[in-house]
Amino acid sequence: MRVDRPTLIYDGECAFCRRWVDLVRRWDRDHRLDLVPFQDQQRVARLGIPLPALAAAMHLVLPTPDGRVLAGADAAPEILRLLPGRRWLAGLFRVPGVRPVARRVYAWIARQRHCLVRGYAVR
Q: What are the residue ranges spanned by the domains of the chain?
């Protein structure tokens, strides 16, 4: 299913994830991204991404004819490109070796995310 604008799907029950999404929301002054917790079953179901995949990593669904989807660290440079004043950070992912390291770091954070932030109220 296609989306009208880039849609970032994240774990809305994860305090670490919500903190980063709050930062993205503040940076997204032009409202280029649609931010959707994967727990919003009605909105997420139409995208056809399996629940285990959504629980494992953030996903960015792009408004392309084929509904291109980027997950985990692979979504980060595209998210940065969409954020005013942060586009330059996306260029760091073109440096040789950065993307594989980013994938490893993202995978570690994804496994540990429920332990990384404490004291963040559940919404």
A: 7-116
* Distance in angstroms (rounded) separating the CA atoms of residues 119 and 2: 37
Gap between the Cα atoms of 17 and 25, Å rounded:
12
Tell me the per-residue pLDDT of 72-96, one tens digit each, with 9 for 90 and over: 999 999 999 999 889 899 999 999 9
Name the pTM for this structure. Answer: 0.86
Q: Is 13 exposed, middle or buried (0-12, 13-18, 19+ CB in 10 A)?
A: middle
Distant-in-sequence, close-in-space partners of 41: CB < 8 Å, separation ≥ 6? none
Alpha helices in the chain (DSSP H): 15-27, 41-45, 51-56, 76-82, 87-90, 98-116
